[in-house]
Amino acid sequence: MKSILIISFWNPTANEPGKGNFIREQVDALCKQREGIVFLEVNILSAPALFSVNVTEEKLFLGKRITCNISSRFWKFIYVAPWLVYRILRWILRKHEASFSPEIVHSNVVFPCGIVGHLFAKKYKAKHVISEHWSRADKMSKHPLFGKPILKAYRQSSAVICVSEFLANKVKTASGIKSPVIIPNIIDTSLFQFVAKVPSPQNLRFTCVATWKNPKRLDLIIESLERFAAETSASITLNVVGEGPQKDIYFAKKWPANMSVNWLGYISKTQIAALLIQTDIFLHASDIETFSIVTAEALSTGTPVLASNVGALPGLINLSNGILVENTVEAWLQGLHNIVNARFDYAVIAQGVSDCFSPSSVARQIETVYYQVLQEK
After folding, report:
1. Number of domains in the chain
2. DSSP 8-state secondary structure symbol assigned to residue 27
Protein backbone atom coordinates (compact mmCIF):
# COMPACT_ATOMS: atom_id res chain seq x y z
CA MET A 1 0.00 0.00 0.00
CA LYS A 2 1.51 3.31 -1.09
CA SER A 3 1.95 5.95 1.62
CA ILE A 4 0.37 9.39 1.21
CA LEU A 5 0.92 12.64 3.10
CA ILE A 6 -2.09 14.98 2.91
CA ILE A 7 -1.59 18.55 4.15
CA SER A 8 -4.16 21.25 4.84
CA PHE A 9 -3.89 24.76 6.26
CA TRP A 10 -7.70 25.22 6.07
CA ASN A 11 -9.21 23.37 9.03
CA PRO A 12 -12.09 23.82 11.48
CA THR A 13 -11.19 25.92 14.53
CA ALA A 14 -13.08 27.13 17.59
CA ASN A 15 -13.68 30.50 15.93
CA GLU A 16 -14.50 29.08 12.50
CA PRO A 17 -15.92 25.57 12.97
CA GLY A 18 -16.94 25.31 9.33
CA LYS A 19 -13.56 26.24 7.86
CA GLY A 20 -12.07 23.50 5.71
CA ASN A 21 -14.69 20.90 6.62
CA PHE A 22 -14.83 19.89 2.96
CA ILE A 23 -11.14 18.95 3.09
CA ARG A 24 -11.65 16.92 6.26
CA GLU A 25 -14.56 15.10 4.66
CA GLN A 26 -12.46 14.13 1.64
CA VAL A 27 -9.65 12.85 3.86
CA ASP A 28 -12.13 10.92 6.01
CA ALA A 29 -13.56 9.27 2.89
CA LEU A 30 -10.08 8.31 1.67
CA CYS A 31 -9.03 6.97 5.08
CA LYS A 32 -12.11 4.76 5.16
CA GLN A 33 -10.98 3.09 1.93
CA ARG A 34 -7.21 2.76 2.25
CA GLU A 35 -4.30 2.52 4.68
CA GLY A 36 -1.07 4.49 4.57
CA ILE A 37 -2.45 8.04 4.84
CA VAL A 38 -1.07 10.61 7.26
CA PHE A 39 -3.19 13.77 7.38
CA LEU A 40 -1.23 16.79 8.60
CA GLU A 41 -3.61 19.53 9.78
CA VAL A 42 -1.76 22.83 10.20
CA ASN A 43 -3.36 25.73 12.11
CA ILE A 44 -1.48 29.02 12.38
CA LEU A 45 -3.19 30.89 15.20
CA SER A 46 -3.07 34.29 16.85
CA ALA A 47 -1.87 34.17 20.46
CA PRO A 48 -0.20 36.49 23.02
CA ALA A 49 2.84 34.23 23.24
CA LEU A 50 5.89 34.85 21.10
CA PHE A 51 5.81 31.35 19.63
CA SER A 52 4.52 27.91 20.60
CA VAL A 53 3.76 24.63 18.88
CA ASN A 54 1.22 22.09 20.08
CA VAL A 55 0.88 18.74 18.35
CA THR A 56 -1.77 16.06 18.82
CA GLU A 57 -2.35 12.86 16.92
CA GLU A 58 -5.23 10.44 16.55
CA LYS A 59 -6.24 7.43 14.50
CA LEU A 60 -8.37 8.37 11.50
CA PHE A 61 -10.19 5.25 10.33
CA LEU A 62 -7.39 3.35 8.49
CA GLY A 63 -5.05 6.37 8.58
CA LYS A 64 -3.75 8.92 11.05
CA ARG A 65 -4.31 12.64 11.71
CA ILE A 66 -1.58 14.88 13.14
CA THR A 67 -2.84 18.32 14.17
CA CYS A 68 -0.19 21.00 14.50
CA ASN A 69 -1.21 24.30 16.13
CA ILE A 70 1.42 26.99 15.61
CA SER A 71 0.53 29.94 17.84
CA SER A 72 2.22 33.34 17.86
CA ARG A 73 1.64 37.06 18.10
CA PHE A 74 3.42 37.09 14.72
CA TRP A 75 1.04 34.55 13.18
CA LYS A 76 0.45 36.66 10.04
CA PHE A 77 4.16 36.63 9.27
CA ILE A 78 4.39 32.88 9.87
CA TYR A 79 1.39 32.22 7.59
CA VAL A 80 3.12 33.92 4.66
CA ALA A 81 6.47 32.21 5.36
CA PRO A 82 5.90 28.72 3.90
CA TRP A 83 9.64 27.92 3.97
CA LEU A 84 9.67 28.47 7.75
CA VAL A 85 6.48 26.43 8.23
CA TYR A 86 8.00 23.63 6.14
CA ARG A 87 10.96 23.38 8.52
CA ILE A 88 8.63 23.29 11.54
CA LEU A 89 6.55 20.55 9.95
CA ARG A 90 9.64 18.55 8.98
CA TRP A 91 10.67 18.54 12.64
CA ILE A 92 7.17 17.42 13.67
CA LEU A 93 7.07 14.58 11.16
CA ARG A 94 10.53 13.36 12.18
CA LYS A 95 9.33 13.28 15.78
CA HIS A 96 5.94 11.65 15.18
CA GLU A 97 6.53 9.62 11.98
CA ALA A 98 10.26 8.92 11.88
CA SER A 99 10.09 6.18 9.24
CA PHE A 100 7.33 7.75 7.15
CA SER A 101 8.29 8.25 3.49
CA PRO A 102 5.27 9.03 1.30
CA GLU A 103 5.08 8.29 -2.40
CA ILE A 104 2.52 11.09 -2.84
CA VAL A 105 2.24 14.47 -1.13
CA HIS A 106 -1.26 15.92 -1.53
CA SER A 107 -1.60 19.64 -0.73
CA ASN A 108 -4.87 21.53 -0.33
CA VAL A 109 -4.79 25.11 -1.72
CA VAL A 110 -1.67 26.36 -3.45
CA PHE A 111 -0.76 29.10 -0.95
CA PRO A 112 0.81 28.53 1.42
CA CYS A 113 0.08 24.81 1.60
CA GLY A 114 1.00 24.01 -2.00
CA ILE A 115 4.45 25.57 -1.58
CA VAL A 116 5.01 23.56 1.60
CA GLY A 117 3.79 20.41 -0.17
CA HIS A 118 6.15 21.09 -3.08
CA LEU A 119 9.09 21.23 -0.64
CA PHE A 120 8.02 17.97 1.01
CA ALA A 121 7.64 16.29 -2.38
CA LYS A 122 11.21 17.29 -3.26
CA LYS A 123 12.51 16.00 0.09
CA TYR A 124 10.75 12.63 -0.23
CA LYS A 125 11.21 12.40 -4.03
CA ALA A 126 7.45 11.95 -4.12
CA LYS A 127 4.72 12.90 -6.57
CA HIS A 128 2.92 16.13 -5.71
CA VAL A 129 -0.84 16.57 -6.11
CA ILE A 130 -2.53 19.92 -5.43
CA SER A 131 -6.25 20.24 -4.72
CA GLU A 132 -7.34 23.79 -5.44
CA HIS A 133 -10.36 25.28 -3.64
CA TRP A 134 -9.35 28.95 -3.59
CA SER A 135 -11.01 31.61 -5.74
CA ARG A 136 -7.97 33.91 -5.39
CA ALA A 137 -5.40 31.39 -6.59
CA ASP A 138 -5.12 33.02 -10.02
CA LYS A 139 -4.53 36.49 -8.56
CA MET A 140 -2.01 35.15 -6.03
CA SER A 141 0.00 33.58 -8.87
CA LYS A 142 0.83 37.15 -9.98
CA HIS A 143 2.04 38.23 -6.53
CA PRO A 144 5.49 39.91 -6.74
CA LEU A 145 6.95 37.77 -3.94
CA PHE A 146 4.95 34.54 -3.98
CA GLY A 147 3.91 34.33 -7.65
CA LYS A 148 6.99 32.40 -8.83
CA PRO A 149 6.90 29.78 -6.02
CA ILE A 150 3.17 29.30 -6.63
CA LEU A 151 3.63 28.78 -10.35
CA LYS A 152 6.56 26.44 -9.67
CA ALA A 153 4.40 24.37 -7.31
CA TYR A 154 1.62 24.16 -9.90
CA ARG A 155 3.85 23.38 -12.88
CA GLN A 156 6.03 20.80 -11.16
CA SER A 157 3.08 18.96 -9.61
CA SER A 158 1.95 15.66 -11.09
CA ALA A 159 -1.73 16.66 -10.97
CA VAL A 160 -3.90 19.62 -10.04
CA ILE A 161 -7.43 18.89 -8.86
CA CYS A 162 -10.06 21.64 -8.98
CA VAL A 163 -13.52 21.45 -7.41
CA SER A 164 -15.33 22.96 -10.41
CA GLU A 165 -14.87 23.74 -14.08
CA PHE A 166 -15.05 27.44 -13.22
CA LEU A 167 -12.06 27.17 -10.89
CA ALA A 168 -10.19 24.86 -13.28
CA ASN A 169 -10.40 27.50 -16.01
CA LYS A 170 -9.04 30.17 -13.65
CA VAL A 171 -6.13 27.95 -12.59
CA LYS A 172 -5.42 26.88 -16.16
CA THR A 173 -5.28 30.47 -17.37
CA ALA A 174 -3.07 31.60 -14.49
CA SER A 175 -0.62 28.69 -14.47
CA GLY A 176 -0.56 27.36 -18.01
CA ILE A 177 -1.48 23.88 -16.80
CA LYS A 178 -3.24 22.14 -19.68
CA SER A 179 -5.68 19.80 -18.01
CA PRO A 180 -6.62 20.20 -14.33
CA VAL A 181 -8.75 17.34 -13.03
CA ILE A 182 -12.25 18.31 -11.88
CA ILE A 183 -13.41 16.48 -8.74
CA PRO A 184 -16.20 18.03 -6.66
CA ASN A 185 -16.36 18.36 -2.91
CA ILE A 186 -18.12 15.72 -0.86
CA ILE A 187 -21.69 15.87 0.34
CA ASP A 188 -22.55 13.57 3.23
CA THR A 189 -25.45 11.91 1.44
CA SER A 190 -26.17 9.73 4.49
CA LEU A 191 -26.97 12.96 6.36
CA PHE A 192 -28.33 15.27 3.66
CA GLN A 193 -31.12 13.01 2.48
CA PHE A 194 -34.34 13.57 0.59
CA VAL A 195 -37.53 13.75 2.62
CA ALA A 196 -40.77 14.55 0.78
CA LYS A 197 -41.86 18.20 1.05
CA VAL A 198 -45.36 19.64 0.95
CA PRO A 199 -44.82 23.40 0.72
CA SER A 200 -47.56 25.79 1.79
CA PRO A 201 -47.83 28.99 -0.30
CA GLN A 202 -49.04 30.81 2.82
CA ASN A 203 -46.14 29.71 5.04
CA LEU A 204 -42.83 30.09 3.23
CA ARG A 205 -39.65 28.82 4.90
CA PHE A 206 -36.26 30.08 3.67
CA THR A 207 -32.76 29.16 4.87
CA CYS A 208 -29.27 30.50 4.18
CA VAL A 209 -25.93 29.19 5.51
CA ALA A 210 -22.52 30.89 5.43
CA THR A 211 -19.76 32.59 7.35
CA TRP A 212 -21.19 36.06 6.90
CA LYS A 213 -18.32 38.07 5.51
CA ASN A 214 -17.18 38.95 1.99
CA PRO A 215 -17.70 37.56 -0.60
CA LYS A 216 -21.04 36.38 0.85
CA ARG A 217 -23.96 38.80 0.44
CA LEU A 218 -26.41 38.62 3.32
CA ASP A 219 -27.55 42.14 2.33
CA LEU A 220 -29.08 40.85 -0.90
CA ILE A 221 -30.97 38.10 0.92
CA ILE A 222 -32.28 40.34 3.70
CA GLU A 223 -33.22 43.36 1.60
CA SER A 224 -34.91 41.42 -1.21
CA LEU A 225 -36.80 39.19 1.23
CA GLU A 226 -37.97 42.22 3.21
CA ARG A 227 -39.37 43.78 0.03
CA PHE A 228 -40.89 40.45 -0.96
CA ALA A 229 -42.66 40.29 2.41
CA ALA A 230 -44.25 43.67 1.70
CA GLU A 231 -45.65 42.33 -1.59
CA THR A 232 -47.22 39.13 -0.25
CA SER A 233 -49.68 38.10 2.42
CA ALA A 234 -47.75 34.88 3.13
CA SER A 235 -46.00 34.29 6.43
CA ILE A 236 -42.24 34.29 5.84
CA THR A 237 -39.55 32.66 7.99
CA LEU A 238 -35.84 33.10 7.29
CA ASN A 239 -33.31 30.89 9.06
CA VAL A 240 -29.81 32.40 9.07
CA VAL A 241 -27.07 29.91 9.94
CA GLY A 242 -23.56 31.16 10.65
CA GLU A 243 -21.75 34.10 12.20
CA GLY A 244 -19.86 37.10 10.85
CA PRO A 245 -19.82 40.87 10.56
CA GLN A 246 -22.64 40.95 7.99
CA LYS A 247 -24.95 39.27 10.48
CA ASP A 248 -24.18 41.93 13.10
CA ILE A 249 -25.54 44.65 10.79
CA TYR A 250 -29.02 43.12 10.66
CA PHE A 251 -29.27 41.30 13.98
CA ALA A 252 -31.34 43.98 15.79
CA LYS A 253 -33.38 45.06 12.77
CA LYS A 254 -37.19 45.26 12.97
CA TRP A 255 -39.03 43.14 10.43
CA PRO A 256 -42.38 43.39 8.63
CA ALA A 257 -45.30 41.89 10.55
CA ASN A 258 -45.41 38.82 8.28
CA MET A 259 -41.65 38.14 8.40
CA SER A 260 -39.52 36.56 11.13
CA VAL A 261 -35.77 35.83 11.21
CA ASN A 262 -34.15 33.09 13.26
CA TRP A 263 -30.48 33.84 13.95
CA LEU A 264 -29.09 30.35 14.58
CA GLY A 265 -25.34 31.00 14.61
CA TYR A 266 -23.05 28.06 13.89
CA ILE A 267 -24.88 24.76 14.21
CA SER A 268 -23.84 21.18 13.47
CA LYS A 269 -24.15 19.50 10.09
CA THR A 270 -26.82 17.24 11.57
CA GLN A 271 -28.82 20.29 12.62
CA ILE A 272 -28.34 21.93 9.22
CA ALA A 273 -29.58 18.79 7.46
CA ALA A 274 -32.68 18.67 9.68
CA LEU A 275 -33.30 22.36 8.98
CA LEU A 276 -32.99 21.94 5.20
CA ILE A 277 -35.49 19.11 5.23
CA GLN A 278 -37.99 21.60 6.69
CA THR A 279 -37.00 24.39 4.24
CA ASP A 280 -38.96 25.34 1.13
CA ILE A 281 -36.25 27.38 -0.61
CA PHE A 282 -32.52 27.73 0.05
CA LEU A 283 -30.92 31.14 -0.60
CA HIS A 284 -27.25 31.60 -1.49
CA ALA A 285 -25.89 35.05 -2.37
CA SER A 286 -22.20 35.58 -3.07
CA ASP A 287 -19.90 37.63 -5.29
CA ILE A 288 -17.75 34.59 -6.10
CA GLU A 289 -18.08 30.84 -5.57
CA THR A 290 -15.66 28.07 -6.47
CA PHE A 291 -18.09 25.28 -5.56
CA SER A 292 -20.63 26.02 -2.75
CA ILE A 293 -21.01 22.98 -0.55
CA VAL A 294 -24.02 24.47 1.25
CA THR A 295 -25.86 24.77 -2.07
CA ALA A 296 -25.09 21.16 -2.96
CA GLU A 297 -26.18 20.04 0.53
CA ALA A 298 -29.50 21.85 0.11
CA LEU A 299 -30.03 20.23 -3.29
CA SER A 300 -29.20 16.84 -1.78
CA THR A 301 -32.26 17.20 0.47
CA GLY A 302 -34.42 18.06 -2.53
CA THR A 303 -34.59 21.77 -1.65
CA PRO A 304 -34.67 24.17 -4.64
CA VAL A 305 -32.16 27.02 -4.58
CA LEU A 306 -32.22 30.70 -5.46
CA ALA A 307 -28.58 31.72 -5.97
CA SER A 308 -26.25 34.31 -7.43
CA ASN A 309 -25.32 33.79 -11.06
CA VAL A 310 -21.58 33.73 -10.33
CA GLY A 311 -18.59 31.39 -10.33
CA ALA A 312 -19.36 27.69 -10.15
CA LEU A 313 -23.02 28.11 -9.19
CA PRO A 314 -24.27 27.79 -12.80
CA GLY A 315 -22.70 24.32 -12.74
CA LEU A 316 -24.98 23.35 -9.84
CA ILE A 317 -28.20 25.27 -10.54
CA ASN A 318 -30.50 24.89 -13.53
CA LEU A 319 -34.23 25.29 -14.20
CA SER A 320 -34.94 21.82 -12.80
CA ASN A 321 -33.60 22.63 -9.33
CA GLY A 322 -33.59 26.40 -8.88
CA ILE A 323 -33.08 29.87 -10.30
CA LEU A 324 -29.95 31.98 -10.85
CA VAL A 325 -30.10 35.77 -10.54
CA GLU A 326 -27.77 38.72 -10.86
CA ASN A 327 -26.54 40.41 -7.70
CA THR A 328 -28.97 43.29 -7.36
CA VAL A 329 -31.86 43.61 -4.92
CA GLU A 330 -34.28 44.01 -7.84
CA ALA A 331 -33.06 40.79 -9.49
CA TRP A 332 -33.25 38.91 -6.20
CA LEU A 333 -36.77 40.23 -5.55
CA GLN A 334 -37.93 39.03 -8.97
CA GLY A 335 -36.14 35.72 -8.37
CA LEU A 336 -38.07 35.24 -5.12
CA HIS A 337 -41.39 35.76 -6.93
CA ASN A 338 -40.35 33.36 -9.70
CA ILE A 339 -39.09 30.54 -7.48
CA VAL A 340 -42.06 30.70 -5.12
CA ASN A 341 -44.38 30.24 -8.11
CA ALA A 342 -42.26 27.55 -9.81
CA ARG A 343 -42.90 23.81 -9.56
CA PHE A 344 -40.12 21.36 -8.80
CA ASP A 345 -39.75 17.59 -8.55
CA TYR A 346 -37.98 17.48 -5.18
CA ALA A 347 -36.99 13.80 -5.46
CA VAL A 348 -35.31 14.42 -8.83
CA ILE A 349 -33.41 17.39 -7.38
CA ALA A 350 -32.00 15.21 -4.60
CA GLN A 351 -31.10 12.26 -6.84
CA GLY A 352 -29.13 14.40 -9.27
CA VAL A 353 -26.79 15.58 -6.48
CA SER A 354 -26.47 12.37 -4.50
CA ASP A 355 -25.16 10.41 -7.48
CA CYS A 356 -22.29 12.87 -8.06
CA PHE A 357 -21.08 14.00 -4.64
CA SER A 358 -21.27 11.00 -2.32
CA PRO A 359 -18.14 10.26 -0.20
CA SER A 360 -17.45 6.96 -1.94
CA SER A 361 -17.76 8.51 -5.41
CA VAL A 362 -15.40 11.41 -4.67
CA ALA A 363 -12.88 9.17 -2.88
CA ARG A 364 -12.76 6.83 -5.89
CA GLN A 365 -12.06 9.77 -8.19
CA ILE A 366 -9.16 10.96 -6.01
CA GLU A 367 -7.81 7.39 -5.78
CA THR A 368 -7.81 7.29 -9.60
CA VAL A 369 -5.65 10.43 -9.68
CA TYR A 370 -3.22 8.82 -7.20
CA TYR A 371 -3.01 5.69 -9.35
CA GLN A 372 -2.39 7.70 -12.52
CA VAL A 373 0.40 9.86 -11.09
CA LEU A 374 2.16 6.82 -9.66
CA GLN A 375 2.22 5.29 -13.16
CA GLU A 376 4.12 8.29 -14.51
CA LYS A 377 7.84 7.91 -14.94
Report:
1. 2
2. H
